[in-house]
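Researcher: I'd like a structural prediction for the single chain below. Treat it as a standalone chain; there are no partners to consider.
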Amino acid sequence: MMEVDIKVENVVANARIADELDLKYIESKLENAVFTKKKFPGLVYRTHNPKAAFLIFRSGKVVCTGSKTEEGVRKVMDILAADLRRIGIEVAEHPEFRVQNIVASANLGKELNLGAIVVGLELEGMEYEPEVFPGLVYRIEEPKSAILIFSSGRLVITGGKTVEDCKRSVDVLLKKLKDLELI
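Model: Treating it as a single chain, here is the predicted structure.
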């Protein structure tokens, strides 16, 4: 099987850091916090070093996006916790979080005939409407994920909870394409 380099673009994780949060108070005290209740029920908080964004909800739940590794999520979660403690909000020093989704990319290094792939895979787990979106969406059951396949040979893998899930998803796709002699 061909070796494909997979690059993690974004790790999305969530956590519960408190039972309830006063978003207006947080916005008034933290410089990079924006709360526009009319537009969105959560507060957006950005860190710059390392770069990440949080959606913080009144329920005490947070969603972290923008990090490229689990270690990066750990680091920015700790920064968020420290920033909140600094303004008098009680939160754990190292909030527990769960990775919900990893978005990764890969390049097969060769052009693909998406029409032939659709015919070969008989639309099994696929969405392809070239007049709406230039990529083919291929859904995989195990590991549960989706791969956007572009005729350039570029792939976007989403839905995995680990980098290994992303690699296994690409392997599933490559095996099917190889079996159909499409690569």
